Amino acid sequence: MDIGCGHGAQSAALVKLGAKQVIAVDEEDEFVHRDNKSIYFMHDRLEDVETKVDVALVSWPINTEIPGLLLRLEQTPVVIYVGHNSIETGISCGTLPFFMHMTHRKLLASGYNKKNSMSIVGERLLRPRRPTAEEARGMRKWKD
User: Fold this and answer.
1) How many structural domains are present in the chain?
2) Is the CA virtual torsion 77, 95, 84, 40 positive or negative?
3) What's the whole-model pTM score?
4) pLDDT digits over 43-74, tens only?
């Protein structure tokens, strides 16, 4: 599931990487990959979508809360986060509860470049792990 899919570029990339089916969800109707039979676009709010998925891709607008996100992530075995957080500019692609959720899951992979970072998390942990640098920046923005 591509949460907050926008135009659907990441949905299309997931298909190219081997996903058999991608559910793309967004409140806005900007999706342009309607001809791709492997992508099912849902013009809906996330909290109204009941479909269960194996993987959720989370990438959303800066400093925005997504209603229903944490409940969805609790039900999803693997979460991929793509975003950029900056203490200097006050930019955060996530909320404090989101980043707290991420640190309570096993880190499977992470990486970054100048524009974005990516974290992939799996199973729930009994105790929080040490946050990645990106998660720490995101949490610090909300704690300040």
Assistant:
1) 2
2) positive
3) 0.88
4) 988 888 888 899 999 986 677 788 889 999 99
